[in-house]
Amino acid sequence: MSKPLSTEQAAILYGTRFLTDDAPDGPFPADGMSALDAMRMVDEELVLEGDPWRNLATFVTTWMEPEAQRIIAENLHRNFIDHAEYPISAEIEQRCIRMLADLYHAPGETTGARTQGSSEAIMLGALSLKWKWKERREAESKPTDKPNLVFGGDVHVVWEKFCRYFDVEPRIVRLQDGKYVIGPEDVEPHVDENTIGVAAVLGTTFTGHADDIVGINKLLVDLKGDRGLDVPLHIDAASGGFVWPFLYPDSEWDFRLEQVRSINVSGHKFGLVYPGIGWLVFREKSDLAEDLVFYENYLGKTDATFTLNFSTGASMVLAQYYNFIRLGHAGYELIMKTMQSNSRALAARLEENGNFKLIGADREQLPLVAFQLAGEKDYDEFDVSWQLSAERGWMVPAYTMPPDAQDVKVMRALVKETLSRAQVDRLADDIDTACEMLEKKGGAHPAERKKMKRSPGY
Ligand SMILES: Cc1ncc(COP(=O)(O)O)c(C=O)c1O
Predict the structure, then answer these.
(1) Is the CB of 186 under 6 A from ligand 1?
(2) 109 C-alpha vs ligand 1 centroid, how far in Å?
(3) pLDDT one-digit tens code per residue, 399-449
(4) Alpha-carbon distance 131 to 355, whole Å?
(5) What is the largest CA-CA distance in the chain?
């Protein structure tokens, strides 16, 4: 009989020592472990998370081609901000900005920035609105202490964040039951000489629709003519910026409209790149407030930077460029149409089932299904979401709308590239089964309800 091994000896010989040890989660670990053990431990920890393939809550890309994955993996060690050392990566960023400016009908030469996502792009775009407003006011010797920004309750939380972080009064148009986007009539009462800009959404987080951007633009053009107020319009196209150009090319929302001065878009949403990439594009170079650009001599080269962050990986910029040249206009159009067709198939199944009604499926919308229960039931949308995740791990969020529509409950399923027609059918069957089960149970148990998540993008 051999002598029993100590834990350390066994770990050296067989690895996987974490099977009997707790995961390090407090003090900085005194000793390390083998690379294989560390990798397995991290992998094992993640197993109990939600599966990105069944995550219909997120707008963010959950699948890329192996060739794109290879580019990403091969360039993780390339710091994007080191322009002197990696000038080609910097040039590729500029190419992407030029391509987006073209897609969004910029009238001439323009400028923009790669960002971590739409949130950073919005912070930078809104900062530029604030600075440009300040310049205009100072030129007229008028006070600059009360800037405000007008937007609807249908925006992403980042807009309120901007206002709080950068000391701007948010003027928020409240939503109503049945009205989940805003138009010129909502905006007009809030605009005055202290308005740094109006933000409108193309593809809201809540129902995937667009604000009445044409109407808001017309209002602002009229205000310029009638009252001499030149109020710029920023379009939050975080999701819609890669959908509308391909599904609704004749719908005007971009630089074709006179007051649209800047646009943000998330490369990691319908730009089809993994998380960590967003874009900000200005109509003209002069729309970027010069004061916000820092010129620094770093590592032997003068560099102009306009970002909130500094170091970041080059991989996602390169992956975005890969997608642009790999797919082109025709490829993006095909993918968007495929997603739209599958989301319509899911919508049709939900209507057929009789338990649900759709929200605005007859209007221009992101490839998603926004729906709610039809009629009185013993269960609600949160229960359906819970039951679906309990039965098959589908992540289809339920949430309440922003004020004043806070009593309205909605469910939303993003239909991305990974949701083929076969998966759509399976999901629709599972939703039917979940409803049947809830019918029998009379709703979720109170203990289950306590665990439910209640935001649009968990
Ligand atoms: C309309 C809208 N704006 C901004 C954001 C924030 O985008 P990001 O996650 O790219 O920072 C989102 C995210 O869902 C969004 O839907």
Answers:
(1) no
(2) 26
(3) 999 999 999 999 999 999 999 999 999 999 999 999 999 999 888 777 777
(4) 50
(5) 97
